[in-house]
Amino acid sequence: MTEQNTNVYDWDEEIDANDNDFVILKPGDYDFTVVSFERQYYDGSEKLPPCKMVILQIRVETSDGPATAFHRLYLAPSQNGLITSFFGAIGLHKKGDEKLKMDWDHVAGATGRAKFGVRQYNGNEYNEVKRFYYKDAAPATSGSGVYDSWN
């Protein structure tokens, strides 16, 4: 279960108006932390049947401040590769294992590596996870959180 943030404002409290900058990542490979996840239900589409869905809140620390991405995992058999790559990225599944037990109790706070891009939607830009890397097969990092090329 995810922890709920209990910080709230009083009616006439003064707030930091500059604390709402949204950092857009340059496309590339970054370390990430799963901040939280939310269980929901997806009503289905032409491509996917109705199914359970998890929305992950993922944070990447950058020199410009933290960047956030939201990533959906659809719990349907056609999505097995995406589900297993996410759990592999956070170290809860090993490549080559035939079975995966989705251990949601260990997702919040987990760290991993992923390729990020920028998605355009309705004139806005959003950070998007393009690919998760298994912990044991991720590209080498230069220490900045941004990964070097595959060589």
Q: Describe it for me?
A:
This protein has 151 residues and is mostly beta strands. The chain is 7% helix and 38% strand. The chain has a domain of 101 residues. A 5-stranded antiparallel β-sheet has the order 3-2-1-4-5.
**First-residue to last-residue Cα separation:** 40 Å
Total number of strands: 5
Mean pLDDT: 87
The largest β sheet comes out as: 5 strands, antiparallel
Order of helices and strands: EEEHEE
The share of residues in helices is under 10%
In the sheet with the most strands, the strands line up as 3-2-1-4-5
Indicate the proportion of strand residues. 35-45%
| DSSP helical segment count | 1
Ranges where pLDDT stays below 50 over 5 or more residues in a row are 147-151
Computed over alpha carbons, the radius of gyration is 17 Å
- Assembly type: single chain
**In one word, what is the shape?**
globular
Structural class: mainly beta
In short:
The chain is mostly beta strands.
Question: What order do the helices and strands come in, and which of them pair?
Answer:
Blueprint: E1 28-42, E2 51-62, E3 65-74, H1 80-89, E4 111-121, E5 124-133
Q: Key terms for this structure?
A:
5-stranded antiparallel β-sheet; 7% helix; disordered C terminus; globular; 151 residues; mainly beta; single chain; 1 helix; 5 strands
